Amino acid sequence: MEKFTVHTGRAVPLRRSNVDTDQIIPAHWLKKVTRTGFEDGLFEAWRRDESFILNRPERRGATVLVAGPEFGTGSSREHAVWALQNYGFQAVISSRFADIFRGNSLKNGLLTVVLPQSTVEALWELTEADPNAEITVDLVAREVRAEGVTAPFELDENVRWRLLNGLDDISITLQNADDIAAFEAGRPGFKPRTQPVA
Amino acid sequence: MGRTLAEKVWDDHVVRRAEGEPDLLYIDLHLLHEVTSPQAFDGLRLAGRRVRRTDLTIATEDHNTPTLDIDKPIADPVSKVQLETLRRNAAEFGVRIHSLGDVEQGVVHVVGPQLGLTQPGMTVVCGDSHTSTHGAFGALAFGIGTSQVEHVLATQTLPLAPFKTMAITVEGELPEGVTAKDLILAIIARIGTGGGQGYVLEYRGPAIRKLSMEARMTICNMSIEAGARAGMIAPDRTTFDYLEGRPHAPQGADWDAAVAYWETLATDEDAVFDAEVVIDASELTPFVTWGTNPGQGAPLGSAVPDPAGFADPQERIAAENALAYMGLEPGTPLREVAVDAVFVGSCTNGRIEDLRAAAAILDGRQVADGVRMLVVPGSVRVALQAVEEGLDKVFTAAGAEWRHAGCSMCLGMNPDQLAPGERCASTSNRNFEGRQGKGGRTHLVSPQVAAATAVLGRLAAPADLTANVPAEV
């Protein structure tokens, strides 16, 4: 996973609630067997509308998505995170994220930041009025900064540590291989198996 | 202090607990399918890792599989590659797989329970949000992303953040003609698509106790549509009776030991939930969705709501967008909404009881002119059972299409899709924009409402049909 420390970039204000993962990346894109190449599928249906905010020239190169509440509801598809990253987004700000999407994002180094809806509104107004306005997402200071906005945010300390250092979860878990083996030795014999042990 | 069902199952799976770290939880069963696993296997290969417990892992093909001409090569080359990738990965890593054409193939959440692999007190994961289905057995079951799929393949564990508990107590009894699907749609409309966020829901109360395992699976399946981490129902005699004799259920002394353990799992009398919701089942009527998220639902007997009536500005905008997408006018009685298609199937409502319920209504009736109805069994076993009972003949005689098992039109990854602007009454779980095909419009309904809708060509309940049946046939 890539490290995330501090990022500054222009924003895309997305005034929609309940942006589900079928909107972020439609199902027909999920047939790909790679983690890359999803950028053209991002918000595919909405992008067919020329006036959709992502299509506007002044939003090209924006890296921070500021979205409405309940962002990422629906399917567990990690492709939604890959699509946002493949397109160039580094951070997403919303007042509420769906759990699975949030977990997926933080495992891939896409920082999802929860801020109060009033702060989200302020960021929408700022970035709608001035497409060149930049937002800084600072994981070190746990703070979002923009003109007229300084907003602290919470993030689980363990998750923050993994992101700041770009650590791979599996390697960390495997350091506890002895604990796993000890747990396995104590599992009840009636638990089902899908096939005989080789 | 007492513990809840969810807390007991969690505690029994903690491999490691340390200050400042998430608990490391052991996973009893890992279900795989073709869509969310290829990148996980790639990760294992790159790191030179193996699957730690192939004996706790099982794969099935479901999302991409065609429901017609399954004996012919798969027409869509991209789907073909994805299915072949799963087969190759299963062979390389020693994972049991049920491919298209296999008698145990089907939707992953139908296959696990019918094999008896899903049991009370287990932790079950799958790279699919509807893994919550398995909570019907008193298992802690939840959907995970592909990074976590790789993590479970490599370690059989997951580091997990703690959850909160919510009791959803359903008092009373469901009236005649009102189903588990109506109940869960009403619950989601009540608590909202984010209402369950961070919670494991426990469905309890007299109305839940009376439900069959299949109905309980329908309820738990849609927990994710309320944003919940998982949904659970305490195991009881209904659960044990369903499991006994299934291929992977414990036998002999193991069965006795298992039941003794399962009986300890119910939430203690003095346990405290972080949140509680009470629903009176006896007040419910058939429920349908009018919008583009599963929380946008209403009783069938009501009308399309007016967005102006929503106090919350976000909800108002969402309702305006939804009605524009759905092509609906505020105030239109839902019973006047005409459909082009009806879909019966999915991990929500693709089990044998669902097919029986739909067939009972279609028996002796005809699907309305201009309406296309697809019936897609949740698994090959469900299909075989339906054929044995003659249900397939009821469907085809009524003018519906009887298809092969798979996810099908629930998410339209295979050729079963809506055309732009087409409206569908669907027994599936998501009415998101474009979910069933680009521009397709979805109304979530129960199998009974789906069948009645097919006959009348507009949203309808079985009770609406009585008048249409000739006195003597």
Please tag this protein with its features.
heterodimer, A: alpha/beta, Aconitase, domain 4, B: 473 residues, alpha/beta, Aconitase, domain 3, five-stranded parallel sheet, 16 helices, 19 strands, 16% strand
Describe this structure in words.
The complex is a heterodimer of chains A (198) and B (473). By secondary structure, chain A is an alpha/beta fold. Chain A has a single domain, classed as Aconitase, domain 4. Chain A has helices spanning 21-24, 44-47, 79-87, 99-108, 117-129, 157-165, 169-174, 177-185; strands at residues 6-14, 64-67, 91-94, 111-114, 134-138, 143-146, 149-152. A seven-stranded mixed beta sheet of chain A has the order 4-3-2-1-5-6-7, sandwiched between helices. The longest helix of chain A is centred in the middle third of the chain and has 13 residues, at 117-129. The model of chain A has no long low-confidence stretch (mean pLDDT 96). Chain B is of the alpha/beta class and 473 residues long. Chain B has two domains: 5-275, Aconitase, domain 3, CATH 3.30.499.10; 333-468, Aconitase, domain 3 (2-Layer Sandwich), CATH 3.30.499. Helices cover 32% and strands 16% of the residues of chain B. Chain B contains 16 helices and 19 strands. In chain B, the strands form five sheets. Chain B has a five-stranded parallel beta sheet, sandwiched between helices. In chain B, 60% of the residues are buried. Chains A and B meet through helix 4, helix 7 and helix 8 of A and helix 2, helix 3, helix 5, helix 10 and helix 11 of B.
